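hey so i finally got around to running both of the ones u sent me last week. sorry it took forever, my laptop kept dying halfway thru and i had to restart like 3 times lol. anyway pasting them below in the order u listed, first the sequence line then the structure token line for each. didnt double check formatting much so if smth looks off just lmk and ill redo it

first one:
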Amino acid sequence: MHQYPELIDRLADGRFHSGQELGQLLNISRSAVWKKLQQIKQVYNLEIDAVTGRGYRLREPLDLLNQDTILQLLSNEGLEQLPPLHLHASIDSTNGWLMQRAGMGVNSGSVCLAEQQLAGKGRHGRRWISPFGRNIYLSMLWYFELPPMQMAGLSLASAIAVLRLLHQLNCSEAGLKWPNDIVWQNKKLAGLLLEITGEASGPSHVVIGVGLNTWLGAQGDAIDQPWVDLNAIPHIVPHTRNELASKLILHLRDVIQQYQANGLTSFIDEWQQHDLLLGKDVVIRSHSQSHRGEHVGIDSSGAIRIRSKGHEQVFHAGEVSLRKEVGEKS
């Protein structure tokens, strides 16, 4: 936290704290505490209750991210070379922050995390709802010798990294929706956005951005598609957001190294095992037209294969969106 670290940290437990206690913490007057809390409510969109005689509390407790904790968890998992980790209270976009620094000496493997994104986005420019202190907003930068044109399959491989994490949490019903959505019972649980830059013949700078819903609450009402968060899924293994972040970093690194060695080919069987629309009738929509057919898998570049009237076509993720055919059973 940059602007109000101690105040938000102290209130994160969701319990009442007196104005006197908070004033002593920051060495300011009680009236100055009240003013700072009003600023926190406005800047971070947090609900703070004030009760005479009891003090102030966050209406919902927060499980805040901690840089040292995440690095320690990574070290405990045996990661010898810890990645540069950049943690922000509030930022426009974790992807954007890393993209601005790609090629400027920022190390491959660098990770950017935020408690809140002000301009987070998904595919096709959709806004990604990013309430403060909730969910995981994480981006990782990686340098590849490959040219950008050969990086398309990494998007699908990265989705497998998120799925592996969810299965580790006992979220066994989570599955994949091409090209890079993670879905639970027809509701979006996580999404990815990859941004790639580089020379036509290589190398490439790739930023892998992951948004994972852990607890959305009332702010989920602003989302324009069916969604779910980990908080609503039964039998999930207990976890903190710091644990989720560290495990996600490890899974992403594993997938990247596997992709560097063998490309998307080594992921196709795993992808298709968890592809929720495989074998179903689907609609592929581009700006100008729709294509209907049976989803029969993905190819080695990550394109989706659609069969209609005995004829197979392939479509690439940047051009189109995928929907299940209306009337098709899950």
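and the second one:
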Amino acid sequence: MADPTPDPTPTELRVRDGGRVLRLSYEGGMMVDIAAERLRAATPSADKSAAPAGVTIVGVDPIGNYAARFSFSDGHNTGLYTWTLLRELAEG
């Protein structure tokens, strides 16, 4: 039986609106946006400091075939965001 859970792997990550939004594109043409502030607040790193208002994404580094690391304007860059976590943030 086929797995009913869609593949959480995005086909593209694109930073938009001056770093305020991350756009995820998926197979089949689905696109979703996550605000940089939401992304920063959901950091999976040990440093759970609050995201400052107006924080932006200043860099994206793919990590293997399973995650990405984001650099934010407040200097935070230690969390690894798995494709599954990004999909959950996009759907939540």
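quick thing i noticed on the 2nd:
The beta strands are 12-16, 21-25, 31-35, 57-63, 67-72, 80-82.
anyway thats it, ttyl
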